[in-house]
Amino acid sequence: MNYALPDTVIEPPTSRNTTVPKLVEKKLVESHQVVARTGRIRTDAMETTYTIAGMHCDHCVAHVKAEVGKIPGVTGTQLSLSNGVLRVESDAPIDFAAIQAAVEDAGEEYSVVG
Fold it and tell me: What is the pLDDT of residue 109?
């Protein structure tokens, strides 16, 4: 028996150490239909990357993520303090002005630089 995913066929496991769910998860991650860390199914998800300046601590990161997360259509955020990279997952394109406004609402010292 074969297991079908959109545009993908997974052959049954050939090893006792591999299970069907593991093979399905691997194929979904490879095809970018699942976010690997969370296992969430992606459906027409988009990811946009920005660079944020002005953050100095984890508290800063939390403020920026909270404000960006309030934007309608945003389904997830990841923000690195070390390099300032903000990844925004959404189900539709998010207007840059909305991202910029949310970052500035998080604190006057924060800005989108790229």
Answer: 92
Contact 69, 77 (CB under 8 A): yes
Tokens of 68: 């960006």
Q: Cβ atoms within 10 A of the Cβ of 101, count? A: 15
pLDDT of residue 114: 74
More confident residue, 36 or 61: 61
For the chain, the straight-line distance linking the first and the last C-alpha, in angstroms and rounded, comes to: 48
Q: What is the pTM of this model?
A: 0.61
Burial 68-98, CB ≥16 within 10 A → b, else e:
beebeebbbbebeeeebebebbbeeebeeeb
Domains of the chain: 1-43 (no CATH), 46-112 (3.30.70.100)
Q: Tokens 């991202």 correspond to what residue?
A: 99
Q: What is the pLDDT of residues 38-57, one digit of tens each?
A: 445 445 578 999 999 999 99
Contact 87, 77 (CB under 8 A): yes
